Amino acid sequence: MKNKQPLIILGIETSCDETAGSILKFKNGKFKIILNLVSSQIPLHRRYGGIIPEIAARAHLKNMPLIIKRISQKINLKKIDLIAVTRGPGLIISLLVGVETAKTLSYLFKKPLMGINHLEGHLAANFIGGNSKFQISNSKSFPAVSLIVSGGHTELGLMEKMGRYKKIGQTRDDAAGECFDKIAKLLNLGYPGGPAIAERVRQWKSQTTNRKPQIHLPRPMINSHDFDFSFSGLKTAVLYLVKKSSFAKATEDKNKIKNQNFIKNICTEAQQAIIDVLIYKTIKAAKKYQAKTVFLSGGVAANLELRQQMEMTAKKIIPPVDFFVPARNLCTDNAAMVAAAGALKYSRLKPDQKAKLKNTWQTIKPDPNLSL
Ligand code: KG4
Ligand code: ZN
Q1: Within 10 Å of residue 151's Cβ, how many Cβ atoms?
Q2: What's the pLDDT tens digit per position in 142-196?
Q3: Which residues surround ligand 2, an ion (CB under 5 A)?
Q4: Is 326's C-beta closer than 6 angstroms to any atom of ligand 1?
Q5: What is the model's pTM?
Q6: 334 in ligand 1 pocket by Cβ < 6 Å?
């Protein structure tokens, strides 16, 4: 994928609770981040233990103009070659803010506009930045298996080549990130649950004794004959454990310490149960399709244990497979990944198709259920 002239892409992302804008440079199959702004709404949603769509949309409305202002201070918007915006899946009222912003900029500056699937963005994060040595133009990297794990999705896909993606498995109920979030809520650990649980696991493992969890939780669907997942049973298993224990009643100091250990124990076992299923199914898919590359992405891919264990297992069981995972800040929602997905799609278009994108602003609509 050679382009002599660099492509400057403006990415916009508002599918959930992060308002994000980014400027990316794409030249000769390599990306360079010029600016990557993410305004997180976590403090706003934390007190509710999850995302409130109405609050998210209002915060996007407030933050988006500030992000565009910061971007325009960094680069003259007339110099942009392409605007890429998340069109779905996501919360409709959140998506609308990003799409309307992108439409307005496309109309004002007469720039091509592309609607991007949020999951396509997560996957494209694998190709950004200094730590990604992935060669976009190298056909020897395919077939590839991709696992996207976020708060809303858990999806396994097969890529026969760049730009050709086929879904081969998905969650039948809760997503892996949702499972982290719901378990954290049950244990009063706050929102978002993934980092809160990961921190308890770190604390548990750094304690000198009792490093192994003394609780066993199920690995749902690990032996199913497909590539689907299910995580709602894991959350229910934790709920029963908590109900059976004296956890909720503890008031004395010595019980509080017991409680903390009980929580760390559950976190360690629950996180490992999620990781075990994700790794097992991904490696099984990679073996079946004789994958040369494994991609991991999405918010849950920020989990250090998942990253390390997936890499170790892939190298051990299916060498010489190449394993890629984006930098941790590019795993959770951001707009650089949206810009990257836009650049890759745009580069594959013919000149007349590219020209038509200047009119996308007239027709583009957010789609909360968009699938990959
Ligand atoms: O991709 P993302 O930022 O937003 C969605 O598209 O959903 O993913 C958010 C999810 C949340 O469920 C959050 O708890 C989880 O990613 N997450 C983590 C970690 N950081 C974020 N899960 C496990 N470990 C982490 N370090
Ligand atoms: Zn996401």
Answers
A1: 25
A2: 999 999 999 999 999 999 999 999 999 999 999 999 999 999 999 999 999 999 9
A3: 150, 333
A4: no
A5: 0.95
A6: no
